[in-house]
TrEMBL record:
GO annotation terms (biological process): DNA-templated transcription elongation; regulation of DNA-templated transcription elongation
Name of the protein this chain belongs to: Transcription elongation factor GreA
The UniProt record lists the keyword Transcription regulation: yes
PANTHER family linked to this entry: TRANSCRIPTION ELONGATION FACTOR GREA
Protein family per UniProt: Belongs to the GreA/GreB family.
PROSITE patterns: GREAB_1 (PS00829), GREAB_2 (PS00830)
Domain of life: Bacteria
Domain called Transcription elongation factor GreA/GreB N-terminal: residue spans: 1-69
The encoding gene: greA
Keyword terms, alphabetized: DNA-binding, Elongation factor, Protein biosynthesis, Transcription, Transcription regulation
Tagged with keyword DNA-binding: yes
Length: 152
């Protein structure tokens, strides 16, 4: 995992424990005051939210102590490895996209971060600029060319 990814997980855990957990406990208490719990939608929604929060806290508490943090600042070169920002060109559509290869718990497609265990990352790992790679996709394998590799 990257140092930034670990920081995000630790911040999320802290927020869940300090803000979200107490807020949902208050919401459950308020909903109980409204009477019959069997027909109380607010109560059921708060309990569902509480279940999600407690599950996520448990997950983060088990993941955080066991992560291996890799300092990307010490990695250089043009070979695709963990932490690389990789730009690829789809040879069929001529569409260029950039991704960062990160750990499983920090992958986020909105931020163009893909998990090191994803099919795309697995296909790119170990390759260099100019290499063409076959990437498995739901509609059939896609051929992409690596046009840039950066470590920031």
């Amino acid at each position: 995992m990257t140092p930034e990814g670990l920081t995000r997980l630790e911040d999320e855990l802290r927020m869940l424990k300090v803000e979200e957990r107490p807020a949902v406990i208050r919401a459950i208490a308020e909903a109980r005051e409204h009477g019959d719990l069997s027909e109380n939608a607010e109560y059921h929604a708060a309990r569902e939210r509480q279940s999600f929060i407690e599950g996520r806290i448990a997950e983060l508490e088990s993941v955080i102590p066991s992560v291996e943090v890799i300092d990307i600042a010490r990695i250089t070169g043009d070979q695709v490895r963990f932490g690389a920002h990789v730009t690829i060109l789809d040879e069929e559509t001529e569409e260029e996209k950039s991704y960062r290869i990160v750990g499983q718990y920090e992958a986020d497609m909105k931020n163009a971060s893909i998990s090191i265990s994803s099919p795309l990352a697995k296909a790119l790992l170990g390759k260099t600029i100019g290499d063409t790679v076959e990437v498995p996709a739901p509609g059939g394998a896609r051929s992409v060319e690596i046009t840039a590799v950066r470590y920031l």
